[in-house]
Amino acid sequence: MLFTSHAFLLLFLPFTLLTYYNVFNTARGKMFFLLVASYGFYALAGWEFLPVLLGLSLITFISAKRNWFLPGILLNLGALAFFKYWNFGAENFNALAEGLGFGFDVDLLSLALPLGISFYVFKHIGYLLDIQAKRYPAGDDLWTFLTFSAYFPQISAGPISSFKDTATQFLNLPQRLDSDQVSSGLVYLSMGLAKKVLIANQIGIFRDVTMSTSAVAGILPAWYMVIAYAVQLYFDFSGYTDMALGISALFGVRLPPNFNSPYLATDPAEFWERWHMSLSNWFRVYLFTPLSRSLLRRWGPDKREWGQYAANLITMTLVGLWHGAAWSFLLWGFYHGLLLNIGARWKRSGYQLPALVSRPLFLISIMLGWAIFMSPDADFLGHLFQGLSGMSGFGDFAMLNTLIWSSATPPLLAGILLTFSGRSEAASLLQDKEPSSAQRFFFWGVLTAICILLMAQSQNFIYVDF
Amino acid sequence: MKKNISILLVLLLFGVYVLKMYPVRGFRSPADYYDFVAFAEKVVLFIGMSMLVTLAMRSAGRDENQRRTQNVWLSGFVAVLGTTTIIILVSNPVGAFPWNTSNHAGSMNPRVDKIPLYKELPSAPDVVFMGTSVSFRIPAQEYAQQFSLTGFNFSVNGATPVDYLTLMNLILSKASPEGKPKVIVIEVLAPNLASEHAGLKFYNAYSLQGAAYAPLPFSLRIVSSHFNKLFDLTSFSSAIFVEYFAWNGKPPTIAFGADGTTLDPAEGSEIGYDRERFVRASTLLHEFLFCTELDNQGKDLIWKMAALSQKHGMKLIFYRPPINNDFYKLSGVESTTFKRKTYRRCANKFDQFMQEVQTEFPDIFYVNLSNYRPIASGGRKLYMDPDHFTAEGMDRLLEVLTPILKEHLDETNLRE
């Protein structure tokens, strides 16, 4: 069940909210209801994978209680690797074996990806590592952990939160919401839905139809497609996150933000402090920091800088791999590792470019990364880079005309305006000091209804597929 | 000030786009339905985007009064959604519900309109034609008469394997006229098996009563589809369009004769023979282009159909109709596109699958006419658009099908 489905917004969500506030009076009762609702939500999305979620949750809980950290982490990673990377690994192994003249062939499997496995596995691993590092003690209550693991506003595509931040809230669920929570919940929900339906979907529908090597032949069409993808991806994922935060806020649970106007960043490091913040934070805490400390110990303080570069490359390559089983994602991750290293080196040099030069350069580098990310194969990537560099000319006039007058251009313009004005996040709207008029909430309600009317064309959230 | 200027500029640009989308000839007849729906969608989309930009660029802040926030938000929400839903319910444009309070006959949905026509037949027809809107103009009864048989045209727009099996269940049900067809001729839209769940798509659902004939998981989907359509802009636009043309005395429905054949004349080669329509149509054919595997559920449904027809002693003739060669030129799709590996892979897989069905079930026959040059090269004379035929085009197609049908009918008669 998608967040952008009629069944969710008009049946599941109202029913769960009404039941949550009118039937269950205690925090514990509310938490149990959230657990049941979360498993119900997951079952509606794909009941056959419910045992995987339940099984991994139980394994994680027991592993934490018994200090079986390594087995718990390996089992979680093993499940993720199996469902997500088996075929990628098998295809590459078979290609290598064939190249080396071996007849050995690993079977490919028809495997669907369990909903949210990339996200809840990381929550589990984060939990185990936090317990191991003694950041907080292992939870005693299985039901709280199961609710944390399956919590439906965040199960599909995050944000990845820590047990300490989220589960403690389950113990203190409010009887009623205060005005802050209601307004923020509604604004997040409305804004998120609008970003997804009005901007991301419209660009996505056009791109799905148009994407081909001929559509990126020429510098203008190529840059159009890449920028369109950058805007689509951002509004799709941040739209989902806003909805997740809004829905969760309506239940009285605060989730961590995932975006902070990433295209306003001025360097690669800042970009990763603003883009998919929960994931980059996870990798920083659980991989980058321990890895760079380990390399520092191994290589010594003289090679501290090289240790950081290596840690950046390894971490970001794995970030890329997390996104999916394809070489394009690995390459994209590695590319961002390089960007981080270049950024770090540049900072150390003390040399500063004027903002008029550095900002566009930085944005171009991010767009080039998206060009890698969006390419389905090497052939397309080659054509795309030829287009982006101008090697295939200016672009066919008919194609340019089609692009300019396409249904993607207005949402693209709206997206760019919101992005560069810093008004693309619901959080930024809610930080305004002046109180809102009631009239504005009326229009948020109207906008939400309009989005529901337009939802028939809804595409799946891009990050749900990761 | 800067904010207001940027908002105004964006709204102006949106306005320009909306105006550009308005069709030059306006909305003058029921045939403009799809253009109306597309334009309405653009208008609402642009209203939505304008609201988003305006609301986001201005402060959102918080309201101190929680109850007021909630109620005001809800009132905006219900005002819009409540109004559209009531209009959709009252108008019932696609005949989902068993009432007709509107002042027009029929619905815009062949899946709703043709079922009562079939049930009113004195006995089961000997030849039933199924397929998509491409087959709407097959003059079923007139055509079957040349074999001294009776015929019915059960084609529905955007037909998929779900439709074929649903209609077969209906044909075989006790609620239908007595007897069974000898032959069912099915025009297959190949892209409907080209992507995951493509075989499950249906553009206008059966009525809630019709849902009973659909295979079980799909019958539930029909019910949920009707729920979704209550809150859907296309349904709302359809309701407005239907009521507008109903006021003008012209029902915006496709009229069908007693044998299920459309009574609307072939519109001629001028309407729909333009690049825009070809580009729009090419998205459907493009599904086949990027397909890596055929849809398993669609294949499964076709297999079930074949088994069902064998059990009841009916023959099935599947055919892929010829695609207009002009499609390649006018849509901007390179002719080499359809020679690309990915396209050939799925086209071949489709043919292979149908060969397997033929092999397993001796009473099933499949013929691929998608590149049949004598018709495919006919251009404006034989086609109204990438795949819909003119009257002459339909005649030519039937000429090709006649010997195939005759051969299988002769076999059937011999068996009897």
| Major interchain interface with per-chain residue totals | A-B, 64 and 56 residues
What low-confidence regions of chain A span 5 or more consecutive residues with pLDDT below 50? none
Shape assignment of chain B: globular
Helix-strand topology string of chain B = HHHHEHEHEHHHHEHHEHHH
Distance linking N and C termini of chain B: 85 Å
User: Helical residue percent of chain B?
Assistant: 40-55%
Structure write-up:
The complex is a heterodimer of chains A (466) and B (416). Chain A is built from 20 helices and no strands. In chain A, helix 3 packs across helix 4. In chain A, 71% of the residues lie in helices and 0% in strands. Chain A is globular, with a radius of gyration of 23 Å. Chain A is mostly helical and 466 residues long. Chain B is mostly helical and 416 residues long. Chain B has a five-stranded parallel sheet, with helices on both faces. In chain B, strand 1, helix 5 (140-145) and strand 2 (151-153) form a beta-alpha-beta unit. In chain B, helix 2 (33-57) crosses helix 8 and helix 3 packs across helix 8. The chains are: A mainly alpha (466), B mainly alpha (416). At the A-B interface, helix 1, helix 9, helix 18, helix 19 and helix 20 of A face helix 1, helix 2, helix 3, helix 7 and helix 8 of B.
What keywords describe this structure?
heterodimer, A: 466 residues, mainly alpha, 20 helices, globular, B: mainly alpha, five-stranded parallel β-sheet, 5 strands
Would you spell out the secondary-structure blueprint of this structure?
The complex is a heterodimer of chains A (466) and B (416).
Chain A: H1 6-22, H2 27-46, H3 50-65, H4 69-99, H5 117-132, H6 142-150, H7 152-155, H8 163-170, H9 179-210, H10 219-250, H11 268-274, H12 277-299, H13 304-323, H14 327-349, H15 355-374, H16 378-389, H17 397-404, H18 409-420, H19 426-430, H20 438-453
Chain B: H1 2-21, H2 33-57, H3 66-91, H4 110-119, E1 127-130, H5 140-145, E2 151-153, H6 161-172, E3 183-187, H7 216-229, H8 233-247, H9 275-289, H10 296-311, E4 315-320, H11 326-330, H12 341-360, E5 364-368, H13 373-376, H14 379-382, H15 391-415
Parallel strand pairs in B: 1-2, 1-3, 3-4, 4-5
Helix pairs in contact in B: 1-2, 2-8, 3-8, 6-10
